[in-house]
Write a structure and sequence with these properties.
single chain, 216 residues, alpha+beta, Jelly Rolls, 4-stranded antiparallel β-sheet, 7 helices, 42% helix, elongated
């Protein structure tokens, strides 16, 4: 499918605006693990994902990570152009979680068209509201939910994303998603294994009892 099919308000833009977007577009690929954006000082472009998966996270002074949200096919990443979002006061890193194909829109072109198009401005605000809701949900989980519940929820989410119970994921990666230390995740996963919820092997977590994980 061409770019037009991935841009929700395409039909509501003028011919001039469409032509400017198409002229500025580039199609890029990223390998799993590539860093595409490094915080507020790196304001380059917006990303629209054709296929793959990106992860947005923040990094503490001590080097700990916590995932804010993930982006999949057809999602748009605004925070990679943080300079057009002047109220954002924290640095977000964007990483490819899988091999990803995505379109790049220069920030200045997008900003110009947002100022001209009410439809694109409204769409951008909807995206921002959705991301804000995800971050607020994350804060609620971190503040009020115990780690065993958060880990169970993460494993269920990952199983849904991957389409099966066998997750090719390391303890370090899980820790980065949940904003904790690898050793803490290892202890919790071993407890889950003792309880018959999961089976562990090198680089793999296999869900054995989905129903009990879901209850947890």
């Amino acid at each position: 499918m061409t770019f037009e099919g991935y841009f929700p308000v395409w039909d509501q833009l003028s011919e001039n605006q469409r032509n400017r977007l198409l002229a500025a577009l580039t199609l890029r690929t990223a390998k799993k693990g590539d860093i595409l954006h490094r915080g507020g000082a790196d304001c380059t472009s917006l990303f629209i994902i054709q296929s793959g998966q990106l992860r947005a996270y923040i990094l503490s002074d001590e080097g700990r990570q916590i995932t804010l949200y993930r982006l999949f096919d057809r999602d748009i990443c605004l925070f990679s152009a943080s300079c057009i979002l002047r109220s954002i006061q924290f640095d977000i890193t964007i990483e490819a979680q899988k091999d990803t194909v995505f379109w790049v829109i220069p920030a200045e072109i997008y900003q110009q068209i947002v100022q001209e198009s009410t439809e694109l401005s409204n769409y951008t605000n909807e995206i921002m509201a959705g991301r804000f809701s995800e971050v607020m949900w994350l804060m609620e989980q971190v503040m009020w939910k115990s780690l065993d519940k958060r880990l169970a929820a993460f494993l269920m989410e990952e199983s849904s994303i991957e389409g099966g119970p066998e997750l090719k994921i390391t303890h370090e990666i899980i820790a980065n998603h949940l904003g904790t230390h690898r050793e803490v995740i290892t202890r919790m996963l071993r407890y889950f294994q003792e309880e018959g919820l999961v089976a562990l092997s090198r680089g793999t977590v296999k869900i054995l009892d989905e129903a009990r994980l879901r209850v947890l």
